[in-house]
Design brief:
The protein is of the alpha/beta class. It has 2 domains: 27-119 and 126-260, Type I PLP-dependent aspartate aminotransferase-like (Major domain) (Aspartate Aminotransferase, domain 2); 261-386, Aspartate Aminotransferase, domain 1. It contains 11 helices and 14 strands. The chain has helices spanning 8-13, 24-45, 51-65, 76-86, 104-111, 156-166, 218-227, 249-280, 308-317, 347-355, 367-386; strands spanning 69-73, 94-97, 115-118, 141-144, 171-173, 181-182, 185-186, 193-197, 211-215, 232-234, 237-238, 294-295, 301-304, 356-359. It has a 4-stranded mixed sheet. Helix 3 (51-65) packs parallel to helix 8, helix 4 packs across helix 5 (104-111) and helix 8 packs across helix 11 (367-386). The longest helix is centred in the last third of the chain and has 32 residues, at 249-280. The chain is globular. The protein binds pyridoxal-5'-phosphate.
Length: 387
């Protein structure tokens, strides 16, 4: 058989390391006993739906973010859905948002019968390009829905000015932004509502599905609290069409315990992200940038490179798991073909789709594991240059 010629870099990549994209079992192991105790308490009083553990978590999360109210729900998608209803968005309306995000941002708009109107993302922060918003406003625009992508807040001050000038409320998709700040306030506290996801892989993750909406408005809090529970302010009195979007008692229990660690985990993420920045600075990659007056929550550490797929394969072969966030922007998804968009409409979102590569980053990641990622990535980049 003919010998396969390998470059020195490929030969080196044959030395296996194993770095997962995320290590949830490692996190669970550290807090398991504490969480089990809290779960046991749920079973003791059978508070399986909402109940004291959820109420306690809501209080803790409101205090953590500095919001007046927190309402726990079953998913981040539901939080976005209820936020848009609370903002008065209805069928036939338009909501300005971004095409570079997880699809649920747009689902919520579709659920109320409104149309997502996309603006491209900024080439440095990858969050909503605020300079493009005004020209997309029409008489039908009823909300602005920026996304704090990868854990970095969108540029809220210009959006707040537009919101005030046109009388259009802002709903913040903060699903990835636990412990992210814009100036001195937590992400999600600038608009009418901030919507969070506690999907297991998030910076604050449940042991199942979970979400929450935060707001400083008493009226919004009252309405959302009712809407998540079949729209009953009072039992069996339904003032409007409601939903079963309640948070499970078990998830409230898990999240309540995890709140104690959130700050520590956030610091570990920052440490690792800054370390990546230093170690990768000389490589031919576009690195993520923390914009001034923002504290990035580093939910995802995303680098850009035109040969992303090749690099990803080489890293996989070297034992390093990576992710793609997100390979197909929403305006090119089949589900949104009715919007009539084509390739070229949102060039930055499309570039991210083609070039994004998410490196492993999680609080339990060791320095050794991170060094292994850097080494494998350095070798992979050398290899793709060489090809
Ligand atoms: C930006 C963004 N928006 C919305 C969601 C939806 O959250 P969930 O999966 O909890 O419904 C997610 C989570 O995946 C997300 O990353």
């Amino acid at each position: 058989m003919e010998a396969v010629q390998k470059s020195p870099a490929t030969a080196k990549l044959a030395t296996k390391v194993s770095v997962p994209f995320l290590d949830l079992p490692a996190q669970a192991a550290k807090i398991r006993e504490e969480v089990f105790q809290s779960l046991r308490e749920v079973t003791e009083n059978a508070s399986f739906v909402l109940g004291p553990k959820v109420a306690n978590f809501e209080e803790q999360f409101a205090a953590f973010t500095g919001a007046k109210h927190c309402i726990g729900v079953n998913t981040g998608t539901s939080a976005l859905h209820l936020a848009l209803i609370a903002a008065g968005v209805q069928a036939g309306d338009e909501v300005i948002t971004v095409p570079m995000t997880f699809v649920a941002t747009s689902w919520a708009i579709s659920y109320v019968g409104a149309t997502p109107v996309y603006v491209d993302v900024d080439p440095v922060t990858y969050t909503m390009d605020v300079s493009q918003v005004k020209r997309r406003i029409t008489g039908k625009t009823k909300a602005l829905l920026p996304v704090h992508l990868y854990g970095q807040s969108a540029d809220m001050n210009p959006l707040l000015e537009i919101s005030e000038q046109y009388g259009i409320p802002i709903i913040e998709d903060a699903a990835q932004a636990h412990a992210a700040y814009y100036h001195d306030r937590h992400a999600g506290t600038y608009g009418l509502c901030g919507c969070f996801s506690f999907y297991p892989g998030k910076n604050l993750g449940a042991w199942g599905e979970g979400g929450a909406l935060i707001t400083n408005s008493d009226a919004v809090a009252r309405r959302v609290r009712a809407l998540r529970d079949h729209a009953q302010g009072q039992r069996y009195h339904h003032e409007e069409i409601g939903f079963n979007y309640r948070m499970d008692g078990f998830q409230g229990a898990v999240l309540g315990v995890k709140m104690k660690y959130l700050q520590r985990w956030a610091e570990a993420r920052c440490f690792l992200a800054e370390r990546y920045q230093k170690l990768l600075a000389r490589l031919p990659l576009q690195l993520p940038v923390q914009a001034p007056h923002r504290r990035h929550a580093w939910h995802l550490f995303v680098v850009l490179h035109p040969k992303r797929d090749q690099i990803r394969t080489l890293l996989e072969e070297a034992g390093v798991q990576t992710g793609l966030h997100y390979p197909i922007p929403l305006h090119l998804q089949k589900a949104y073909a009715n919007l009539g968009h084509a390739a070229g409409d949102f060039p930055m979102a499309e570039r991210i789709g083609e070039e994004c590569l998410t490196l492993p980053l999680f609080p339990e990641m060791t320095i050794r594991a991170q060094d292994a990622v850097v080494e494998a990535l350095t070798d992979a980049l050398r290899e793709v240059e060489w090809q």
